Every structure is written in C-alpha cells, then in structure tokens.
Amino acid sequence: MDLRKGLAAISSSFLSSPSKQPVDTDRESSFQVIAEYSRSLMSCRSREEVSALTLKTVQILLDVEQPEVVFRTAEVPALLETSKLGAPNFLAYPGVEVSVRGQSTQVALLRIPEKNDWTALSKNEMAVLEAIAAPMGLRLECLRLEEELALHQAGSIRALSAAIEVKDRYTSGHTKRVGFYANAITLHLSVSAVEREKIRLAGVLHDIGKIGVPDRILLKPGKLTEGEWDEMRLHTEAGFDIVSQVAGLEEIAEILRHHHERWDGSGYPRGLRGEEIPFASRVISVADTFDAIVTDRPYRKALTPEQAREIIIELAGEQFDPTVVEGFRSAFESLASQVELPAVTIRL
Ligand SMILES: [Fe+2]
C-alpha cells in the first residue's frame, strides 16, 4: 500500500477538525479519523503495514507515546489472562483484543504500555482502542485468508507444472524458460510487481493444455497435417478449461487461452487483435516464440538468439505487440544469457 498516503489522509482528517479541539473531546472528528483509518486499512498488504497505520492512528487519537500491537503469538493468551486478572507486571499491560468473529480468533493485542493498569485507561481510551480493534481484526483476517489462498494457489501451480513435465518430459525446461523470459521482458515495461508475477506464472503454465494433445502429434518428427494442427490448436482452450478450475487462477486461465493470438488478428483461438488480446498473453507470445526459435525443432535446427531477435523485431505490429517487442529488445541480453540448447527436439 501507499502507507504515506493513508497516514496523510488520516492526519489531514485530524488536522481539518473544524473545532481544532483535542480529538478525544470531539467525537465527530474521532469518527472521521476512524472512518479514514478503516478505508486506509484496505490498502495495507501486510501485518507490518496494518501495525504502522494502527499505531499512527492511535497516536493521533490519543495523547500517548508508544502504543503497541502484539500479534498472535504464544505469549498473547497469557498476556490477556494476566491483564484481565488485574495483576499487572511488565508483561501485563492492559489492552484490547483484536478479534474476528468474537473470541474464536484472537489475532492481536492493541495496548498502551505507559498505562500499566486497567484503571489507568479512560473510558475514551478504551472506546478508541475498541473502535480501532474491530476493523483492524477484519483486515488481519483478510490478509491471513489471502496468504492461505496464495499457498493453495502455489501448490496448485506446482502440481500443474509437474503434470506438464510428466506428460512430455521432452518439453522439460521450455515452460520454465518462457516464464523466465516473460518476466525479464516485463522488467522493461510499465508493469506492477503483482502483474509481473502473474505473467511469469502464466508463462510457466502456458502449455498445460498440451496434456490433451496425443503424443503422435506432440512428438511427431516432421510437419503436421492440417488435421493435426487443428488438434494441436485445441491446447489453448484446454489450458483455459484446466486452470480456470483452480480458485484464484481464473485470470491466468484467460492469459493461457490467448497466448497464440496475434496482434494483427490472425491468431487463435478467437482471432483477437491488438489490445483486445490480454497484455500478459502478448508478452508470453513473444517469450514463447523466442524460445521456439532458439531451440531445435523437429524440422529445423535452432537459430541463434541474434537471429531470433531480428525475426521478432520484424514481426512487431504484425504478429507481436510493438510495445512488448520494445521490452524484448531492452531485455535481450538477459534473455540471450539464459538460452540453453536442449538435448532433444520439442514442438511448441
Ligand atoms: Fe502454446
């Protein structure tokens, strides 16, 4: 997230308080700050960002030096227990549990160390801590669920990649190289880190649909007949069908579906043209073609990376997105350094 932006919004909300009174005596301003805090939380991408935003907000709302957020660890339940029993010691500061769905999920403790006794917390301080704890708990729970989903997705991607290798060990390395090349190209284009990772993963999975292509076609040591090409072309829709079954990978499935579209509309499966083609598919198309040219094919020997570069540049605006080709040109040295000649022939 843009943490500075979030904090600036909170600060300006606080500073624009019409009464200019301390916020703890101005309920309306406090509500505004808490509402802004809740909105800014949505852009926090980690527990650390949530913690920083929360502490800043508590400092704005209450006149305290160093509020603390203690995330769920083994010590939190004990801390809560001693606090509630009213036996304060250096570990037993009073605070507010940041929970989700009641007490079933205590995710953190929000506390003010300088107030070392429950009675030291005023009604207003308790109200502020509780008002902040609720949205904070929800955001932390969202982040936890996102992490869990990301783990499941990573497992699914590993399983799918393994399936490609098992189906056709001869293409071993090709999919990973395409992922690498696609990633390298995006480093020279205006692409966010999240989008870049999505493109890399789509590169790794781009040919998963070939699981459904018979070996007599996939491994045929010669040119394919028109009928065989028709079967081969089905791999883009097959890839979409497979990957779209995995929750969270729907966008990647769409990228796979279109990796054989061409900028001029002469590709497949839909004959999309120009920017109708997903950007990530346009990147993978260049990466895939580069790898195809620099590796041995059933009907010809590998060409050099420099020859591949000339071919791809010539096809900018025809087969490939000119902007992506620009990124490819800039990334060329990095791509060329990764070129490996496989010991066996492959068909893409
Ligand atoms: Fe393909």
Describe the protein's architecture and organization:
The protein has a 3-stranded antiparallel beta sheet, with helices on both faces. α1 runs antiparallel to α2 and α6 (174-186) packs antiparallel against α7 (193-205). Mean pLDDT is 80; it is low at 13-24, 84-93 and 341-348. β2 and β3 (105-111) form a beta hairpin. The chain is built from 14 helices and 3 strands. The protein is 55% helix and 5% strand. It folds into 2 domains: 3-144, Beta-Lactamase (2-Layer Sandwich), CATH 3.30.450; 155-336, Hypothetical protein af1432 (Orthogonal Bundle). It is mainly α and 348 residues long. Fe (ii) ion binds next to loops.
Key attributes of the depicted protein:
three-stranded antiparallel β-sheet, elongated, 3 strands, 348 residues, binds fe (ii) ion, mainly alpha, 55% helix, Hypothetical protein af1432, 2 domains, Beta-Lactamase, disordered C terminus
